[in-house]
Amino acid sequence: MGTTPLAIAGGGMAGLVAAARLRELGVRARVDEKGTRPGGSMLLSSCVIWRHRDWDDFRRECPDGDPILQRLVWSRLDDALRWLTGQGAEPVALDTGNPLTTGWRFEPAALTRALAARAAEIRLGTPASPAVRPLILCTGGFGGSAELVARHIRPAAPLRLRANPWSQGDGLRAGLERGGAPSDGLDQFYGRNMPDAPWDETQLVALSQLYARFARIFDMNGVEFFDRGDVSWSENNVVAATARRPAASAFYLLDEQALAQAVRERTVAEIVAAAPAGARVAPEELPFAAPAGTVAAVRVRAAITHTIGGLRVDERARVVDAAGSPVDGLRAAGVDAGGVATGGYASGLAQALVLGLVAAEDAAG
Ligand SMILES: Cc1cc2nc3c(=O)[nH]c(=O)nc-3n(C[C@H](O)[C@H](O)[C@H](O)COP(=O)(O)OP(=O)(O)OC[C@H]3O[C@@H](n4cnc5c(N)ncnc54)[C@H](O)[C@@H]3O)c2cc1C
Fold it and tell me: What is the pLDDT, as a whole number, of residue 2?
C-alpha cells in the first residue's frame, strides 16, 4: 500500500463504501468525517437499498435523471449488494415489500460497523480539506444548509431536517469552486411530511406521516391543494408540494375509513396516535371548516432527507465541468452526485453504494 492515503470527504454510505473498496484494491485511503460518528444519514435510515424492478419504471418515475447514471446504478446494484455481504454485512430482509422495487434491507448500525471496520482509517470530527487531490466527495448533499436549501429549493418556509446534521453542502461548494458544473434538479429533494411538533433523530422513521394517499390535504389557509389520488407511492410528490405552501406545512384530515387503512404493519389510526400531541388537532380547532366526516387532523411540515441535485458527474463518478470534461482529481459519490433521480425518487443508498464503488475503482485506476 502507498504512503499517502487517498482522501475521502464524508464517512456515510458512499464514503465508507469507497474506502472499503479502495482497501480491497490495495489503495490506502483515509476518510475525513465532519460528524462525531461514522454512518451519516445511512445510520438513521430504514436501510432498504433498492432499485426499480423494471428499467422502464425507473425512467418513468425519474424521467429527468441522467439515463447513463441511472443505468449504472440500476445494472450494478445487485452485484453491489452481494459485495456488501462480502464486507461482513448481512441483510435482514431480501425484499423491499414493494412490488415495484427489488433490493435488500440491512440493519443500519450493523452495516455502518461492518463498513467502518473495512474502511480502517477514519478521522472523526474532521471536515475534509476541499483543496486536496485526488479527493472523493461523499458529504451527503446540502439538505442541512438552510441557506443553500432556500437558494436552490426555495420552499415557502424553512424545511425541517430529517437527516444527519452535517451534510451542509460542503461537497457542492468544493466541487463548484474547483470548476465542476451543477447537475439538473438542484431545486428538488427527497423527504417526508413529519409532525409539526418537536421530534429527534431517533424518530425519523417512526414519525413519518406516510398516509397522504388516504387523507384530504389542506394548507394552512384551508385550500385543498393536493388530491389524494395523485399521491405517488413514495409520497415524495406531496412533500414537494407541501414545501411550497404557506409555512411549508399542511393538514392531513382523516375520516373513519382513512384511519382504518393499513400502512405496512400499522393502521393509520396507530400512526396518528403516535404523533406528538402538539401536531394532532381536533377537527373543530382547525383554522377552517373541516369537511364532513373528518374525525382527526395532523399538522405536518415538509422535512428534507436529502437533495436530488448536486454535482454533475460522468459514468466514472468524475466531477465534470460545463463542457463535460473531468475536473482534475475530483470525484463525487452518493447524493453529492446529482441528477440520478431527477423528476422523482429513487434509493439514495443504492446511488451511494454503486457510485462509491465506481469512484473507488476509478481512483484506483
Ligand atoms: C430517516 C431516513 C430514512 C431513510 N431510508 C432510506 C431507505 O430505506 N433507503 C434508501 O435508499 N435511502 C434512505 N434514506 C436516505 C439515505 O440514508 C441517503 O440517501 C444516503 O445515506 C446517502 O448517502 P451519502 O453517502 O451520500 O450520505 P450520508 O450517508 O448522509 O453521508 C454523508 C457524510 O458526510 C459527512 N460530511 C458532511 N460534510 C462533510 C465534510 N465537509 N467533511 C467530511 N465529512 C462531511 C456527514 O457527516 C455524513 O457522515 C433514509 C434517510 C433517512 C434520514
Answer: 47
Q: Calculate how far, in angstroms, residue 242's C-alpha sits from the geometric centre of ligand 1.
A: 23
Cell numbers for 19? 474506502
Span from the CA of 41 to the centroid of ligand 1 (angstroms): 3
Shortest-distance Cα residue to atom 31 of ligand 1: 12
Task: Pick the closest to residue 320 from 33, 19, 66, 64 (CA basis).
Answer: 66
In tens, the pLDDT along 168-177 reads 999 999 999 9
Residue 3 has pLDDT above 80, yes or no: no
User: Over the stretch 168-208, which tens digit does the pLDDT of each residue have?
Assistant: 999 999 999 999 999 999 999 999 999 999 999 999 999 99
Q: Find, among 61, 70, 68, the residue nearest to 343 by Cα.
A: 61
Nearest atom within ligand 1 for CA of residue 39: 49
And the C-alpha cell for 203? Answer: 424518530
Q: What is d(CA 95, CA 347) in angstroms, rounded to the nearest whole number? A: 14
Average pLDDT, the chain: 97
Q: Which residues line ligand 1 (CB under 6 A)?
A: 9-15, 32-35, 40-42, 44-49, 127-128, 138-140, 162-164, 166-167, 170, 204-205, 305-306, 334-335, 347-350, 352
